[in-house]
Specification:
The protein is mainly β. It has strands at residues 2-7, 10-13, 18-26, 33-39, 46-51, 58-60, 68-73, 78-83, 92-99, 113-114, 118-123. The protein is globular, with a radius of gyration of 13 Å.
């Protein structure tokens, strides 16, 4: 069992920045591929980014590549999502997820544990 708690969401102006954090507790953190997903009102949950168990590999959705950066600190059991150049279309609830898989994946079904989400609102 892994417990995930996101933080760092909020209201930001168009073009602004935020850093989301996800604290993990429970089973060995390094067993898990970590991902960030988001869900906007009236839309399905979508993949944002993933990071491998060691942090050596990352993957981004086309919509955020070049603006968002995922990272993890395995000593602190933390994963982060740095978001720069925020746009109104980035407004959503952002979820941290842990997948018991050695392969980075954008498929939400491959992630076993989810946080409660943190709201990000970008005002234009």
């Amino acid at each position: 069992q892994v417990h995930l708690v996101e933080s760092g969401g909020g209201l930001v102006q168009d073009g602004g920045s935020l850093r989301l954090s996800c604290a993990a507790s429970g089973r060995t953190f390094t067993w898990y591929t970590m991902g960030w997903f988001r869900q906007a009102p009236g839309k399905e949950r979508e993949f944002v980014s993933a990071i491998s168990r060691t942090g050596g590999s990352t993957w981004y959705a086309d919509s955020v590549r070049g603006r968002f950066t995922i990272s993890r600190d395995n000593d602190k059991n933390m994963v982060y999502l740095r978001m720069n150049g925020l746009k109104s279309e980035d407004t959503a609830v952002y979820y941290c997820a842990a997948g018991d898989t050695p392969i980075m994946t954008r498929a939400s079904r491959e992630y076993n544990y989810w946080g409660q989400g943190t709201q990000v609102t970008v005002s234009s």
